[in-house]
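Appendix B, Record 12. Input sequence as logged:
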Amino acid sequence: MPKAIARSKTKKSVAKRFKLTATGKVVRSKAGRRHLLQSKSSKRKRKMGKSVVVDDTDVSRIKLNLPFGLR
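Logged structural output:
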């Protein structure tokens, strides 16, 4: 009987940090919103709450770790 091909598992740490959009783009949240917020302006904190598209150089590595997402 032939041996089954091992399937690649989802890296849960990557799944928690990144999301895939319906068009296949990778989205991440911005850093710096956890602590030391008094010294940051309201405008800066508000912009940190938005999500941003990941740079093209990192997309292929992230998608390898999310095998069940859209490709």
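The radius of gyration is 17 Å.
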